[in-house]
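re the bet — no i am not wrong, look at it urself. input seq straight from the record:
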Amino acid sequence: MKVLGIETSCDETACGIVEDGRTVLANSIYSQANEHAKYGGVIPELASRRQIEEIVNVYESALARAALSAEGVDVIAVTTKPGLIGSLLVGVNFAKALAFYYNKPIVAVDHIMGHIAANYITYPELEPPFLCLTVSGGHTSILLVKTYTSYKIIGTTHDDAAGEAFDKVGRALGLEYPAGKKIDELAALGNSKRYGLPHPKVEGCEFDFSFSGLKTAVINTLHNLAQRSEQVDIADMAASFQNVVVEILTEKFIKAAFYLKINKLCLSGGVSANKQLRSTLEQKCKTHGFNLFMPELEFCGDNGAMIASQGYYEFKNGNIIDLKKDDF
């Protein structure tokens, strides 16, 4: 079964085609990162306008890469939540038009479930249940994935997502958006013990996260150094900040695994490409005897292949949208 996945939840415009939920036939992406860099973040109105302009090109590119015609697609899957409403509408309306015209079944995909499904592409043997740490610009959660189409939130962020904190700290350090990759590169060159930064905790919520205070601590440190006419070592600050984020993420994730008595762990989301996070989790899981699954780097960020993969399981579960009755 060949599923077309359409992803437009933020600033990427992506279409992927996956067979039987595991084999990627095509994964086409148009990124707007360079266009939004001058603003220091995504401008929703600009993002959706560009997606309207590019979605047909990306769709046709995916079909060409898979050597398929539109008729050769069996199911259409599209991200419906969460995300920027204008951007989501671009993908949803395009998917609806294709489904009507070609008389194809259509399924709705939760963006977070899509990120989790990136692991199914990388590991054909992976099956639920498992525990997943989803870390991106908009989400930071520990999820108990019970089935291919359901999960339970074990912990989540009370304010900034980890990826959001990376971008805001990057902006304070004078780095271009998106700053996650650059901070990761600088951190490898810096001293993570140079600047003492707090490890924020959420009282009464053992597995929840809070990164706003950490971000503020970095900004305050930068201001204090400037007032004393002292130069900040950007690499050391990047290393100090990233080290705290990774320590918080891995500590809570491993603790949740012990609490739930689960030894099968997955990582997902854009921040899952972070080298220190990946290596630290590998070490921790090896120490404790846990099995760790992480998506290939090309499937860490937003992409259509992950939506197509999850769409396969939504279809198999009977979660099909009736376009004549259902509004989504």
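see?? The chain has a mean pLDDT of 96. told u. also The CA atoms of residues 189 and 307 lie 36 Å apart. so pay up
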